[in-house]
Amino acid sequence: MQTYDAIVIGAGAAGLFCAGIAGQLGLKVLLIDHAPQVAEKVRISGGGRCNFTNRELDPRAPHKHFLGENPNFCRSALSRYTAQDFIALVQRHGIPYHEKHKGQLFGDRSSQDFIRLLLAECEAGGVQRRQPCAVHGIAFSAGRYEIQTDGGPVAAPALVVATGGLSIPQIGASDFGYRVARQFGLRVVEPRPALVPLTFDGEAWAPYAQLAGLSLPVRIETGSKKERMAFDEDLLFTHRGLSGPAVLQISSYWRPQAPLRLDLAPGAALEDQLRQAKAGSRKLIANELAAHVPARLADAWVRQDAGWQRPVNEASDKALAALAGRLSGWELVPTGTEGYRKAEVTAGGVDTRELSSQTLEAQRQPGLYFIGEVVDVTGWLGGYNFQWAWSSGWACAQAL
Ligand code: FDA
């Protein structure tokens, strides 16, 4: 049986980074993945450019950008290996990058730059890799983990599970990490798709399906008054429902049967604007609306009520108020999500109460670690999930 100081299962963002750092700290590390390629999600991330971190991440207040049953769990790892630390590493590797919207940092060229960075870090640490290699069983005895793999049995006193969540099964996602957690008696917070488009009942959605492809800035909200979450982002209409950053962000907080509230003309004071128009304009209401929302949306919207399909000076105050109210307070209940096939991440996962926030080691199972997305730590859209992968991988590597 080949033995190592640490075995890492999952050669994604967290696993590669952790293995590389641990190797550079002098450990003999084996990294195993069942997929033929490393870091498939890094490859497809950020539209192929990898949104690798976010400058606005405040490690002292992680609840601002992360959710989970204990959103402050990630504070320790995020403060010890920060966005600045990863940016410095990106600079050392000579990877050009730029800042987009709201602190999001993307590579200038391709996400392959980041895969090369991760592989180079592993090489610098002498990490051995087996891939594609399935794991068939894990046993713990006499203080070490014995792992049955396609390539024969291997053993180590430390086992790091970095197999991510359930999103995008077509490129290797599996429930492996949750099964390992349960095997060792650790609780798992029920996983659910997050950062995911939302869908609506076919018939009810029919009037809006014609808007597929339309994008506009909105304010979107969900939750009761006490727990309201709101985002000011772009919305995208699709054939089956809603997507775009606004919806992806709110989807992580949305619960089945809960309504969403959308302001499709944020900041426009629409009712006042339409009343003013009424005093001096003979234009169709749809044309007046088009000053505040895209013309396609204005056209589709006025078709919902005969009282809105006329010149603005002929409309009643009541009809204009109803129109403004419906555009700036559109309430609708999604029937579901597009599921793991389209979700960028999986919310839920290994219960953080089972893990040390300093080392990511299971409190009740010495030598067993969980890092990255498999843990019940979910970041907002915008580079937060990769930063959690880097920070949790780094924190774990220090403890191995
Ligand atoms: P990750 O999923 O990266 O890696 C898990 C690894 O484990 C995989 O290599 C898999 O093959 C392996 N594995 C799974 N089951 C196994 C088993 N049974 N045996 C062996 N190996 C197994 N985030 C962000 O911050 N910025 C961004 O731009 C994007 N963009 C983005 C786009 C898209 C389309 C998606 C789907 C996701 C993103 N994300 C993102 C999210 C980000 O990709 C994700 O949070 C991280 O990759 C999580 O890193 P992990 O290493 O935890 O899992």
Automatic annotation (TrEMBL):
Record keywords, A-Z: FAD, Flavoprotein
Matching PANTHER family: OS12G0638800 PROTEIN
SUPFAM superfamilies (alphabetical): FAD/NAD(P)-binding domain, HI0933 insert domain-like
InterPro entries, A to Z: BaiN-like, BaiN-like_dom_sf, FAD/NAD-bd_sf, RsdA/BaiN/AoA(So)-like_dom, RsdA/BaiN/AoA(So)_Rossmann
Domain RsdA/BaiN/AoA(So)-like Rossmann fold-like intervals: 5-398
Protein origin, superkingdom: Bacteria
The RsdA/BaiN/AoA(So)-like insert domain, residue ranges: 192-345
Transmembrane parts of this sequence: none
Co-factor(s): FAD
Name the record gives this protein: NAD(P)/FAD-dependent oxidoreductase
Species the sequence originates in: Ramlibacter tataouinensis (strain ATCC BAA-407 / DSM 14655 / LMG 21543 / TTB310)
